[in-house]
Every structure is written in structure tokens, then in C-alpha cells.
């Protein structure tokens, strides 16, 4: 947060004079709740336990205990052009506010030094035949100040403060989105790599069995139909490998872009699924605090504050404006005489401007500002509803995918035990090659299903962290909006 600057003090002193409505931050929804999704599906599933907390850990991705994942996130935060652009927009908003504050709250002083050489004909003095050439030197100090009698300037600065708060929220939202995208892309890449390995294992087993079947066919032990069936199965399994490899490459390229690297992937760590640990407990922000934690909701609130300030600006344009000016200067034909007492000229001025007839323009602009405020208020309410729906969706996904993960784990375990028995029986000649091949393929397919189920749980957890605001610890005040900032 920026230090409390002098112009904010001036704004507070002038606040009683400002026309237009004062901004009040929206209250959190009454009886806010995530619905039945909090408890749905936790009967015997593999879902992490939800622990009520004031906030999500700031570095929530470390819940997965993966060094490679932490390296990827660090690269993204350091190199992302998206974050750099958001940071630049925030700096621009701050500097613009500083410039506007100087223009509104303080008088302006300008110094000027001029020299000019002129020729006049003398006709103006009744002597057309006697032209004169002379040099005029001028040194002047000019002062001007606009009195903010009705608070239009204050409302304009309030608009700028809300704009800075909006950009700070947008920066945090970009940061949260980037981290979540990196986590989900890294999990997807690791999952696809594991699926490639499982598919390659299926192909290897099928190839080995096919070689044995080829020999048995030559000996007349099995028929040609059985041999062709195995060849067809192997061909079908091999056809599944290229799409998986293509998806791995695509996800690798996407992850490189997210971390600010070229698609060649140099310097980009590869993460394996067994590196990731699903946490036993994950924090769940209490529902009444959600609107104070989500950067997109706070950005919508800042936009609402901006719309409120624009109403004040439009209202102030209907009131008189008072401007003061003063000048002190010297004029002489010689530089040596420029600062003599007789060369001094000065002036004082005051101007009052009151709109009298604008054909309804100013009232129409104020009505438009009020309509913009209503739109911003509706957008804020929609953003709040979306935030609660995001959390509810993530909670339901965690609960139901937890059930699926438990079932897939049990199925994979049983398939592994079955495969071990069939292998033993086949070695003793009790079962056919087709039965062994079927058991191997069933096990590998269930292994792939288990990999996908684990990846879904990691992605669901990341989605919940995103929906809860991603560990943003800083608050947001109404009134004169505090600038929320995580990166300098």
C-alpha cells in the first residue's frame, strides 16, 4: 500500500463540501453460504478434509509438496508478460493520479522569459514616414488556482483513487489466474506423460504376447482367427499413443508460454505425477469473507466506486467554478533595465463561471452517470453470485471426484491382483494367452483411469484455491480506496 500522501489529507478536509453521493462499500451477502456442496460426497471418498479458515495460504500451490511445481510458478511470476503489462497499468494509474492531484489541489506557477525584436511603421502615432525598430524583454511569473468549492476536484481524485485500486485488483487477479493455469497445465502434462507410459506398457505386453502367439500359430496350437484378433488389438492400442504424445507436446508448449519461456522448453522442469501429494486438509474461507478475498469481486467494487465518483463529477459540473490568477512581470527595452522598479507590471484576476443554458446537456450527463452506476452495481452483484457459484462448483467436484478416486483406486488394486493370479495360471498352462492379454490390458486401462482421477483431484483443489481468492491477504477499504498491491 502506498504511504498516506498529503493530497489525501486535503481530500479528507474537503470531503464535507463535495457534491454527489458518498460511496459506501457493498455489504457481504446476508446468510452467505456455499450450499450443500460443502458436505456433499464426503462419505468415504478420497477427498481432502475441508478446514474452515480466514484465508487461503498465500503460496497455496505448495500444498502439493512439489519442488518442480514451485519452480514453474516462480518462473511464471518472474517472466510473465501478462503480469508485466498489469504492473505497468497499475504504475500508469498511480502516476496519473499523482499528476491529477497536483493539478486539482495546488496552485500552478509558471515563469517565463521572452525577448522579441519588432518594427513598427509609426502610422499609429501619426508619423507614417518614421518607422521604429526596438527590442522588448519580458520576465514574468504567473500564478493560477481553481477553487474546488463544490468538491468536483475531490470527486475527480476519488475517481482516480478507485482507478488505482481497480488496477491493483486486476494485477492480483492476473497473478492468481497465471498461477492456477500453471498448476493445472503442469498437472495435465504430468498426467499425460503417465498415460503415455501406461499405454506403452500395454503395447509392450501385447507385442510380447503377439510374438508368442505367432510361434504358437506356426506350431498349430492356435488358429488364425485368434492371431488376427491379437494383431487387431495391438494395432488399436498403438493408435492411442500418437494423440497422447501430441497432447503432451501441446501442454508442454502451453506451459512454456505461461512461464515466459520459448516453446523449446529449455530450462523448464518436467514434473511427474508421483511428485505431487494430495493434501489431507485444504482451507475453506468462510462464506462471509469471500467477497473480501476475491480480487475479481474487489475489482468490481472498485469499478462501482469509479461509477459513483463519476456521478459526483457530473453533479459538480452543474455548479459554479471559481478561478483565481495573478501575474508579476517586468518589461524593458534593455536587459539592464529589466528589473528596475519602473519596468514592473502586475495583474490580479478572478473568474466565476456558472452554466446557464446547455439545452439539458449537463442533466443528461448526470443521468447517464447514474445509469452507469446502476450497471456497475448489477455487474458487482453478478460477480458476487459467480464467485459463490465457483466455490460451490469446486467443492462439488472435490467431493464427487474424491468418490471416483476411491473407486478407481480399488478397481486398479483388484485388477493388479487379478493380473498376478492370471500370470501365475498362464505360466502353469491353466489359462490361454488371450486371457492373460485381457487381464493385462484391463489392468493398464484401470491404471490410466486412476491417473486421470488423481489429476482431476489436483485440478479440483487448484480450482477451489482460485475460487477462494488464492491467498490474497490484503484488505480493501471503501471511502478513499486503499491501493491493494502485492508486487512493487
Automatic annotation (TrEMBL):
One Gene Ontology molecular-function label? efflux transmembrane transporter activity
Pfam families reported for this sequence: OEP
> Which keywords has UniProt assigned to this entry?
Lipoprotein, Membrane, Palmitate, Transmembrane, Transmembrane beta strand
A GO cellular component annotated for this chain's UniProt record is:
plasma membrane
What Gene3D superfamilies would the database entry show?
A: Outer membrane efflux proteins (OEP)
Which membrane topology describes this protein? Lipid-anchor
| Location in the cell | Cell membrane
Q: Which InterPro entries match?
A: MdtP/NodT-like (IPR010131), OMP_efflux (IPR003423)
Reply yes or no: does the keyword Calcium apply.
no
The coiled-coil segments of this chain are none
Q: Does the keyword field hold Membrane?
A: yes
Q: Tell me the protein family, please.
A: Belongs to the outer membrane factor (OMF) (TC 1.B.17) family.
Sorted alphabetically, which NCBIfam families does this protein's record hold?
A: outer_NodT
The name under which this protein is listed is Efflux transporter, outer membrane factor (OMF) lipoprotein, NodT family
Amino acid at each position: 500500500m502506498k504511504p498516506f500522501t498529503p493530497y489525501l489529507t486535503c481530500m479528507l478536509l474537503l470531503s464535507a463540501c463535495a457534491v454527489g453521493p458518498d460511496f459506501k462499500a457493498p455489504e457481504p451477502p446476508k446468510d452467505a453460504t456455499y450450499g450443500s456442496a460443502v458436505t456433499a460426497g464426503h462419505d468415504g471418498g478420497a477427498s481432502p478434509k475441508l478446514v474452515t479458515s480466514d484465508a487461503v495460504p498465500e503460496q497455496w500451490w505448495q500444498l502439493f509438496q512439489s519442488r518442480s511445481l514451485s519452480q514453474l510458478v516462480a518462473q511464471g511470476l518472474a517472466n510473465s508478460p501478462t503480469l508485466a503489462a498489469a504492473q505497468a497499468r497499475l504504475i500508469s494509474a498511480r502516476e496519473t493520479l499523482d499528476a491529477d492531484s497536483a493539478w486539482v489541489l495546488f496552485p500552478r506557477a509558471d515563469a517565463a522569459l521572452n525577448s522579441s525584436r519588432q518594427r513598427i511603421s509609426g502610422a499609429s502615432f501619426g508619423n507614417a514616414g518614421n518607422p521604429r525598430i526596438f527590442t522588448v524583454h519580458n520576465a514574468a511569473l504567473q500564478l493560477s488556482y481553481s477553487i474546488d468549492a463544490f468538491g468536483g476536484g475531490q470527486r475527480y481524485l476519488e475517481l482516480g483513487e478507485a482507478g488505482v485500486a481497480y488496477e491493483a485488483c486486476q494485477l492480483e487477479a492476473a497473478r492468481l489466474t497465471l498461477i492456477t493455469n500453471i498448476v493445472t497445465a503442469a498437472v495435465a502434462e504430468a498426467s499425460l506423460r503417465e498415460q503415455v507410459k501406461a499405454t506403452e506398457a500395454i503395447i509392450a505386453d501385447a507385442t510380447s504376447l503377439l510374438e508368442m502367439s505367432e510361434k504358437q500359430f506356426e506350431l498349430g496350437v492356435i488358429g488364425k482367427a485368434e492371431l488376427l484378433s491379437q494383431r487387431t488389438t495391438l494395432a488399436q492400442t498403438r493408435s492411442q499413443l500418437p494423440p497422447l504424445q501430441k497432447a503432451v507436446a501441446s501442454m508442454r508448449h502451453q506451459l512454456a508460454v505461461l512461464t515466459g519461456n520459448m516453446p523449446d522448453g529449455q530450462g523448464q522442469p518436467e514434473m511427474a505425477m508421483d511428485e505431487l501429494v494430495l493434501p489431507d486438509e485444504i482451507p475453506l474461507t468462510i462464506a462471509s469473507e469471500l467477497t473480501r478475498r476475491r480480487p475479481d469481486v474487489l475489482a468490481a467494487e472498485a469499478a462501482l466506486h469509479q461509477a459513483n465518483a463519476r456521478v459526483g463529477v457530473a453533479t459538480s459540473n452543474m455548479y459554479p467554478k471559481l478561478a483565481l490568477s495573478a501575474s508579476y512581470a517586468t518589461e524593458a527595452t534593455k536587459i539592464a533595465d529589466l528589473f528596475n522598479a519602473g519596468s514592473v507590471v502586475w495583474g490580479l484576476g478572478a473568474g466565476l463561471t456558472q452554466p446557464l443554458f446547455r439545452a439539458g446537456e449537463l442533466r443528461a450527463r448526470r443521468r447517464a452517470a447514474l445509469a452507469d452506476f446502476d450497471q456497475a452495481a448489477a455487474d458487482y452483484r453478478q460477480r458476487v453470485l459467480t464467485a459463490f457459484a465457483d466455490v460451490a462448483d469446486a467443492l462439488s467436484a472435490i467431493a464427487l471426484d474424491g468418490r471416483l478416486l476411491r473407486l478407481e483406486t480399488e478397481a486398479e488394486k483388484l485388477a493388479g491382483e487379478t493380473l498376478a493370479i492370471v500370470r501365475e495360471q498362464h505360466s502353469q498352462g491353466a489359462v490361454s494367452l488371450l486371457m492373460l492379454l485381457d487381464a493385462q490390458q484391463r489392468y493398464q486401462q484401470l491404471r490410466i483411469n486412476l491417473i486421470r482421477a488423481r489429476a482431476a483431484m489436483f485440478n479440483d483443489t487448484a480450482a477451489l484455491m482460485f475460487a477462494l481468492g488464492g491467498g490474497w491477504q490484503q484488505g480493501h477499504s471503501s471511502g478513499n480506496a486503499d491501493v491493494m498491491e502485492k508486487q512493487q
